[in-house]
């Protein structure tokens, strides 16, 4: 695919993702008095807004754009999808890894046939980070590999207050290991 086509696809995708539809803002209300607690955890999972979901507001607009380009280019080149999510809380979860796994499954990160998604979740106030892999991804990016990337690439930058740099270095390292 020519570079001009890639740029056009990226531009159109980013424009599409920046648009809010009315359908997203309206909710249907149930008229039942029963309370179902079986989906309490999953109901706390936010709705996806793109490949970068900066609910915790730790990135600047230019950082989101740069990271989006890296992730979209990788997705187009390989059909492997990486999603980055920042949040202010993982409640009612206690384990960010479980939250990241449920979020990735709920959002359908990666392709269904290959189950080749990767979800990175950062909770700055909680001081936690989790990387969840699809079953097709975990054959290469094992828990040990992900932990090593977190410990050696991401956390040192976070300790200096450089959240974007930590995520970017971690993403680039994961992409290199996933080739």
Instruction: Please tell me what the overall shape is.
Output: globular
Low-confidence stretches: 10-41
How much of the sequence is in beta strands? 5-15%
Overall strand count = 4
Largest sheet entry = 4 strands, mixed
Oligomer: single chain
What percent of the residues sit in helical stretches (DSSP H or I)?
Answer: 40-55%
Give the mean pLDDT: 80
> Count of helical segments?
7
Domain TPM: 52-175
Keywords: Signal
Protein name: TPM domain-containing protein
InterPro entries: TPM_dom
Please name the defining characteristics of this protein.
179 residues, 4 strands, 49% helix, 7 helices, alpha/beta
Sequence-ordered SSE layout with sheet pairings:
Layout: H1 3-18, H2 22-25, H3 40-43, E1 52-54, H4 61-78, E2 81-87, H5 96-107, E3 117-123, E4 128-133, H6 143-159, H7 163-178
Parallel strand pairs: 1-2, 2-3
Antiparallel strand pairs: 3-4
Helix pairs in contact: 4-7, 6-7
What is this entry, summarized?
The chain has 179 residues and is α/β, with parallel strands linked by helices. The protein has helices at 3-18, 22-25, 40-43, 61-78, 96-107, 143-159, 163-178; strands at 52-54, 81-87, 117-123, 128-133.
Description:
By secondary structure, the protein is α/β, with parallel strands linked by helices. The chain is 49% helix and 13% strand. Strands 1-2-3-4 form a four-stranded mixed sheet. Helix 5 links the parallel strand 2 and strand 3.
């Amino acid at each position: 695919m020519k570079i001009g086509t890639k740029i056009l696809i990226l531009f159109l995708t980013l424009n599409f993702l920046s648009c809010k539809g009315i359908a997203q803002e309206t909710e249907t209300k149930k008229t039942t008095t029963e309370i179902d607690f079986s989906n309490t955890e999953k109901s706390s999972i936010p709705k996806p807004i793109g490949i970068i979901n900066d609910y915790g507001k730790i990135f600047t607009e230019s950082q989101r754009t740069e990271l989006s380009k890296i992730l979209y280019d990788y997705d187009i080149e390989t059909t492997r999808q990486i999603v980055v999510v920042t949040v202010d809380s993982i409640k009612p979860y206690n384990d960010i890894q479980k939250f990241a796994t449920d979020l990735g499954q709920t959002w359908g990160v990666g392709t269904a046939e290959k189950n080749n998604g990767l979800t990175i979740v950062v909770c700055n106030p909680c001081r936690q980070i989790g990387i969840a892999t699809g079953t097709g991804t975990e054959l290469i990016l094992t828990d040990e590999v992900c932990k090593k990337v977190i410990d050696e690439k991401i956390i040192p930058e976070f300790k200096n207050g450089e959240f974007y740099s930590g995520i970017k270095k971690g993403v680039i390292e994961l992409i290199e290991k996933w080739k």
